[in-house]
Amino acid sequence: MARDPQLRVSDEDRDRAAALLREHHALGRLTAEEFSERLDQTFAARTVGDIDALLRDLPVIDLYRLPDARLTRLPRQAQAQPGRGGSRGWRAVWGIYATVNLICFVVWMLSDFGYPWFLWVAGPWGALLAGTYVSFGPGRPGRRQLGSGGGRGQLPRGPGSN
Hints:
Among the domains are: about 10-55; about 85-135. The chain is about 50% helix and about 0% strand. The chain is built from 6 helices and 2 strands; from the N terminus they run H-H-H-H-E-E-H-H.
């Protein structure tokens, strides 16, 4: 449906046109002078025709496109490797646990081996982590694993997702 060029534009229309101009400038289609001039004209525009005239010689850009699945750093199969200590999140959690307890142990050793107070840090925290790991599995820490079916408790899939 074509828009009437005599319709008045809203602030949202001007902001969207400015975002498009910024994107074209970033891609090198507009010089700094052209960008500045067109941006001033965009915020002074009163009708849809004024805005269309500013964008007429530029290709259409979809500012709301979803990110491409190829942009992820690791393939989905390599992200969670249960045979190698679980997900990256769990390795980080256990690494923090080990680091904090090592520091507590060294402080305890430097304090002439008195009462083993560091066990009050290591024991309950370790039990809590182990229980969470057993309850929720090797996925992301603190998140329940959802099945692949469309059952209850799952988020609806957005457009374009498989």
